[in-house]
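Re-run requested by the PI after the first attempt was lost when the workstation crashed. Everything re-entered from the original request form. Ligand of interest: KG4.
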Amino acid sequence: MKVLGIETSCDETAASVVEDGRRVLSDVVSTQIDIHRRWGGVVPELASRNHVVQLMPVVDEALTRAGIAPGDLDGLAVTSGPGLVGALLVGVQAAKALALAWGKPLVRVNHLEGHLVAAFLAEDPPEFPYLGLVVSGGHTSLYVAEGFGRYRLLGQTRDDAAGEAFDKGAKLLGLPYPGGIAIDHLAREGDPRAIRFPKANVKGGPLEFSFSGLKTALLHHVKRHGVPQGRALADLCASYQEAIVSALVQKLFRAARTLQLDRVVISGGVAANSRLRQAVAERAAEYEGLKVLIPAVRLCTDNAAMIAVAGTHALLRGERDGGELNADPAWRL
Ligand code: KG4
Ligand code: ZN
């Protein structure tokens, strides 16, 4: 079963062909990072316009690299939410037109479900049920994945997402967008205990996250001391990163212990963070039998292969969408 996935929810235009929800035949991602960098973040209108320009060449490339024609497809899957409404609309309208023209079934996919099931493209895929943490520029959400199409939300952020904390923090420090990569890089040379940042705890919500206080603490620090250079900048990045990572790790393992789940999957752009990967591995070593899966960076950041995986199982369940399908920017999983 070959499914074409289409993803345009934020600033990546992506298309991918996946076979049987397991094998990536092609995975094309056209990123707009260079376009948005000069504005210090994603500009929604620019994102939509660039999706319009990029999408059909990206779809063509995905089919060519997979070595197949549209007639060989068994269906299409498209991200219809959550995300930027204008950006989502480009993907949704294109997918509807292609499905109609090619006479193929179409199904919508929730972007967060895509992140949660990206691990099925890894060499050693997880087994249900597992604890799934989605950490990206727009989301910090903890789920129990019970089966394809069956997810239970345990907790999420009350304000900024973890990736947003990285991006906004980086902006305050004059570092380029996307901030997570810049901070990750600088932090490698820094001391994570150099500066004390507040722990991102939420009263009454043991599995909820909050990162806006941390960002404010960084703002006050910079107002008081200015933006440091060299070693001191590395220390500041490492300390700020540590505050984000320790909040994520703490809640993740608290959930694993409380729910007695011994499989954990982490995905989303922030899962690319080297300190998070290291901290999770260290902590997991303390729990006998706990298995942590963080897919390769390419599968963690936005891509269409993960959308094709979720879409394959939705199609197998008999789900279909037609001409009435619309973008759903606030779609909750
Ligand atoms: O999943 P993603 O590609 O797009 C969204 O759905 O948001 O995630 C993008 C986010 C950005 O906030 C970016 O700063 C962050 O992932 N990110 C990182 C790293 N690489 C990307 N954050 C921390 N460390 C990284 N190495
Ligand atoms: Zn994402």
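Saved to the shared folder this time. The two ends are 25 Å apart (CA to CA).
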